[in-house]
Amino acid sequence: LYRYRLGDVVEVVGRRGTCPLIRFVGRADLVSDFYGEKLAERHVAGSLAAALAAEGLEPRFAVVSCERAGARRAYTLFVEDERAADEALERVAASLEALLLENFHYALCRRLGQLEPVRARRAVPGAAGAVLVTCAERGQRLGDVKPSVLYVRGDLGAAIAEGPHA
Prior knowledge:
The chain is an alpha/beta fold. It has five helices and eight strands; from the N terminus they run E-E-E-E-H-E-E-H-H-E-H-E-H.
């Protein structure tokens, strides 16, 4: 693997004989930056995992995307989990916000009023497939789409959110 610079971050989770068993962690080069907030996929993934675990949620699908929020934008967590109560999703969003504020650049954008706090919305059933369709419609080859909890192009809600798009 060291011969190929794919930008993937992997973790060795065990061994089978002398062969390492690896798990895909994320992309090293995925950074969302609309106003200078510089949110890296690894930080968002770790923060989201902690926020979901605190509520005991294991959604079928979850993604964070920077969405229009009136005149401003807000990072929005889309969750496909029909068992999760609305209040639990709101707590996950608040927890994710607190963890993202550990990023100096994100915190500065929030203090300057460039971004609204993290929000949570329910994703439609089959949201992962809808993301693939959206990526293709936006010119990305399906073979180039890597699974990620951070959608860096933003404005994904119209394709995957339940109910009216805010």
